[in-house]
Amino acid sequence: MPLRVALFGSPVFALPTLERLNREHQLVLLVSQPDKPAGRGLGLKPSAVTRRARELGIELLQPTKLRSDAVFLERLAAADLDVAVTAAYGRILPQAVLDTPRHGVLNVHASLLPSYRGAAPVQWAVIDGKRETGVTIMQTEAGLDTGPIRLQRKLLIGPHETAAELFPRLATLGAEALSASLELLAKGDLPSTPQDDAAATPAPLLVAADGYLRWGDSAGASYDRFRGVAAWPGTSFEHHGVRVKVTAMTPVEVGSELRAADSLPVPGTVRAVSGEDLIVSAGANGDDSDATALRLERLRPPGGKEMSAAAWANGRRIGTGEILG
Question: pTM of the entire structure?
């Protein structure tokens, strides 16, 4: 049975959910954040959901303040909603909004809650080296991602997959999970399971420092971080006061010809200039004593073009034994 639904969402992540709702239910309202200044001219740029709402001719609301916008709250109440859905909307909904639809508000969250509560669950799952993630359809409460779990779907993370590559797969899975949830909700069969708060982990917004290479980490951990921050802020390191972007790198396997014979080199030490690449020592790999290393392949100095790591090093006369970090 089709339900009367409102969708709260803003970025591209919400689009598969929008399309699914529009096909399967009565999508009465789309609520997105106000257009924001962007580009050199600081012209107002609409969100992905805003653009799609205008294309489809679905009523669009863009309230600035949810709690105090009387016109918005009145329109929401008048929509006679069975349920509302949030998908990367970017704002915490006040209780007045949560209480308006008959079945409250469901959230499409890109993690297996209670793991990775917060604004950047996809990035932190990759940074932490997880090999599995998923989506949770959660009943939204006043807390940050603390509401009961209604339905979950799991997804494997590829060993070389970046967070940016994982996002669209999770967005599609989220739309599928929501569709299944609403079908069960309409029948009165959608389960509700409280979260285990003791098992919760945070997923705060990324900051620039989250992209800094930590030479003391193992090569695998550094590579996971590289994949997690690929879209923003990107990976970088500082050399002689200048921050250099790393646009391509891979870990060098433990047990390679670059293993130190007597002692582990200081993390961040250039161990070889190999073809187009730089081989740089990393921290110990877990509990074993083997050295690990990073193969830096492509770099971009500030204000410059992307180049091979070896070309960058040669231009600065960086050789074996120099410490980059």
Answer: 0.94
